Amino acid sequence: QVQLVESGGGSVQAGGSLLLSCEISGYIYSSNYCMGWFRQAPGKVREGVAAIDSDGSTTYVDSVKGRFTISQDNAKNTLYLQMNSLKPEDTDAYLCAAAHGTHCGMAYWEYNYWGQGTQVTVSS
What pLDDT was estimated at residue 29? Predict the structure, then answer.
């Protein structure tokens, strides 16, 4: 049973930074998985924010390029999202996800496992 647990959300002012973490358990963190971060507001479609392939290649949605960085620590079975220069429009629940395979896209239906989410609120 795969389990993903996010942490690190909170409230910050515009221009601030947050580091989100996602601890992964229940399976061997092998090269056969890739990971992603999504965000979702109530009543809206889940949006892909960043993804990282098994080889370390990364993909970002245009709105966060240059501000957010996705990374992983295989030794700690942890996925990170460093968020800098935060804007009020970044306010959402952020969820990490895992997918079978070596390449992860930005579509939520590609992913097999999900965390519960952590709230990020950015005030102006």
Answer: 54
- Cα angle for residues 118, 120, 124 (degrees, 5° grid): 170
From 29, 34, 1, select the one nearest 101 (Cα to Cα).
Answer: 34
Rounded CA separation 41/70 (Å)? 20
Distance set, CA 71 to CA 67, 74, 103 (Å): 13, 10, 15
Tokens representing 31?
């090269």
User: Is pLDDT at 27 greater than 90 in this prediction?
Assistant: no
Residue at token pair 């973490």:
21
Q: In terms of DSSP bridges, do strands 58-60 and 113-114 run parallel, antiparallel, or are they unpaired?
A: unpaired
Collapsing DSSP states into helix, strand and coil, what is residue 45?
coil
Contact (CB, 8 A) for 54 and 102: yes
When computed from its CA atoms, the radius of gyration of the chain, rounded to whole angstroms, is: 13
pLDDT the model gives residue 115: 96
List the 68-73 sheet strands across, edge first.
3-7, 18-25, 78-83, 68-73
